[in-house]
Structure formats: C-alpha cells, structure tokens
C-alpha cells in the first residue's frame, strides 16, 4: 500500500494492494473496542461526499495513515449501500469522481514534483482500459467514437453532442481539458459499478451504528428545507460574497462553487435560474454549473444540504459574519430567519420577468 493507492483507491493497483495485504474487511468493521481508523475515515468519506460534494479529509484537521485511507474506500462502499437515502449512490460516486478529477489534474501538472508520487495520463488511461481508445494529436486528443459516446452520455451541454464535434475515421477530437472531464466520468462509472452492494448480514450489523450516525447527520440541519424565495438582499454575507465573485468572473474554487450552487438549489432555483442569477454565460463554466446543479438537487427531503457554517469557515468562505450569524450554524438557517424577519419581499425572478 502506498500514498498513490490511498489517493486513488478505485485503481486496479489499489485493489490489488488491499488483496495482497490480506486485510479482511469483516475484521475491520467488526473490530472490538475503538472504532477502526478505516471505519472512522469511511464514515467521513460518505458524510463529506453527501454533504459537501468531496471525499477529501474533513477540515477539522483529522488525518489518517495510508492504510486507513485506502481501506476506507471499501468501507465507504458498504456504508453507502446500507444508507436509506435517495440518490446516495450517485452523489457518492460523483463526489469520489470530482475529488479524483482535482487530484489527477493536479498530478498531471506536477509530474516533476519529487515530494509526492503522482499518476500520469498514460497510467490512468491504462488502468481504465482506455489506452487503445485515446490517441495523442498535435493539438489535443482523439477518442474512439464508441468510448466517447459512452463516457459523454451523462455530460450536459451542446458541446458534448456528437453532431457538433469534429469526427473522422471513427475518432472524436477533444481538448486535453475535455479528456480530463471524460476521465472523471470513467471514475464515476467505476465507483458506481455494483453499488448498492448486497451487504452480508454480518457486515451490516458491524456498521449499524455508523449508518445511523450518517442518516441522522443528514437530517439534523436546523432549517425547514422548503424555502422557495429568491431575495438576494437577505442572503447571508458568505453567499452574497460568493454571488458577487461569481458574477464578476472571479475564479471560484470548486468547493466554493459547490457551496453556492447547493445554497441556490436549496432555495428552489433550477439550473437555468442559477446560471441567470450568477450571470454565467454559455460555455464550459455553464456546463460545469449545470452538472453541479444536477448533482446537488435533492428530492425535497433536504438530505443534501449546502455546507454548514463550520465547513464554510474551514473553506475560508465565511466572510464578514454579522449579528444574525451569531445565532445560527447554517447559511440556510440564516436565510430562513432573515426571510421570516424581512416582511414582504419581492422575488428576484419576478423582478426579472
Ligand atoms: S456565519 Fe455562517 S451564515 Fe454567517 S457568513 Fe459565516 S458561513 Fe455564512
């Protein structure tokens, strides 16, 4: 087991490393006494995936060793299979894929970094059996049309339609950035494969406490979840700041986009409304915003809330908190309180109509 396996636990080499280490997952989940570190990290992996859209370690500074990081992946797959939460598998797989995308694009750009083990494009393509389906070109890459169609099937936006792309001799031309997005889809498909698992009784019993803990953490945010009013002057300071940055083309980090999109979706905006409100024109940024909206959209049960104040603070996205912030722990709770105190408000969408 090495650091690369821990960062990319879905790779074949990582699976082999777990097998070679001869670790019994049953022994990990049913260990007596303190919770096994891999189980603790597995719980955080799923919690972060469903609440924050990432599987990076929590922002509270807790860290796990390579073995626990790697083993937390099979544990997380068991947990997400046991959860009674609609859309959990898809959101979990998306979060794993998004985190992997951030990691491998960073690795591709830092191949000469001697302080860490990195993966390169050829190794990633080989692991996904894509080496023969992707060819390098003077500019960009070619992807075999069948592979392109299957990887781009869930990507939204006209630019992914085959009709609008350069196609020759069964190969579709893509840029390097587009190839990376297709690889993210490969990761998502691999992570989602076979989920939910048919979890044996013994393992389900061993993880019963963790499943209850996760299910309760999705429903304990202290707000009603049925807000459907767009009143920007009443937004919490953090969201006002993110909206302003999005509108002024200030490059938002992925986690900041996630927080903003989750908040706007949580108050009832659809993808077109999010794009219009944030003044995002068509193009790749619009496609990414649409992708995020689809990912965070819940089924009305409010299980996939935007990040809490604690997470926003950890991200550095809690800016200029005001007096109302002292009485809440969640940006949605702030907004709900402000709406209740604000009297009659005009919905931004009505003004724009
Ligand atoms: S305290 Fe919470 S609601 Fe207030 S600005 Fe910070 S993150 Fe936003």
Describe this structure in words.
There is one protein chain. The protein is mainly alpha-helical and 353 residues long. The protein folds into 3 domains: 3-105 and 198-217, no CATH class; 116-191, no CATH class; 232-352, no CATH class. It has helices at residues 3-7, 12-20, 25-29, 37-52, 66-82, 88-109, 121-127, 145-152, 176-192, 201-206, 208-217, 237-247, 254-266, 271-277, 284-296, 309-315, 331-341, 348-352; strands spanning 134-136, 141-144, 167-168, 171-174. The termini are far apart. The model is unreliable at 299-303 (pLDDT under 50). Iron/sulfur cluster (SF4) is lined by residues 236-238, 309, 312, 318, 321, 325, 331, 334.
Would you spell out the secondary-structure blueprint of this structure?
Elements: H1 3-7, H2 12-20, H3 25-29, H4 37-52, H5 66-82, H6 88-109, H7 121-127, E1 134-136, E2 141-144, H8 145-152, E3 167-168, E4 171-174, H9 176-192, H10 201-206, H11 208-217, H12 237-247, H13 254-266, H14 271-277, H15 284-296, H16 309-315, H17 331-341, H18 348-352
Residues 236-238, 309, 312, 318, 321, 325, 331, 334 line the site of iron/sulfur cluster (SF4).
Descriptive terms for the model:
353 residues; mainly alpha; 3 domains; four-stranded antiparallel beta sheet; 4 strands; 54% helix; globular; binds iron/sulfur cluster
State the secondary-structure class: mainly alpha
Which blocks of ≥5 consecutive residues have pLDDT under 50?
Answer: 299-303
Sum up the overall morphology in one term.
globular
List the strand order in the largest sheet.
Answer: 1-2-4-3
Bound molecules: iron/sulfur cluster
Helix run count = 18
Radius of gyration: 21 Å
Total domains: 3
Please state roughly what percent of the residues sit in beta strands, choosing from under 5%, 5-15%, 15-25%, 25-35%, 35-45% or over 45%.
under 5%
First-to-last CA distance: 58 Å
On the 0-100 scale, what is the average pLDDT? Answer: 86
Biggest beta sheet summary: 4 strands, antiparallel
Order of helices and strands: HHHHHHHEEHEEHHHHHHHHHH
Tally of strands: 4
| Residues in helix, % | 40-55%
In quaternary terms, these chains amount to: single chain
